[in-house]
What we know:
It is a single chain. By secondary structure, the chain is mainly beta. The protein is built from no helices and 11 strands. The strands form 2 sheets. Strands 2, 4, 5, 6, 9, 10 and 11 form a 7-stranded mixed β-sheet that branches. A 4-stranded antiparallel β-sheet has the order 1-3-8-7, with no helix packed on it.
Amino acid sequence: QVQLVASGGGLVQAGESLRLSCTASGSRASINAMDWYRQAPGKQRELVGSITSGGTTNYADFVKGRFTISRDSAANTVFLQMNSLKFEDSAVYLCYARVFYDGFRSTSLWGQGTQVTVSS
């Protein structure tokens, strides 16, 4: 069974940093491209940023210059480095990826989400 597992969330103070990870596991899985989303209570899910198979990244305006997406292909993991966190960055962060597995199959998966809480 192929799955995405997100981790790294927690409680931090404004101005601090966190690094989230999202790892693909099972059936010779590897991540092709990934999006990071977030959803705060009572708000719509919003795209934070993305990374392509070639490593090109794009970011929402509200995180540009503060967040960085990177990947460790050998570890089947994509990272979301979040610096200078603000209270309004508090949300559940979710990864969504296109994953290759079993040598020739592919699917799109959501990770389970990880809570980020920033205290002001």
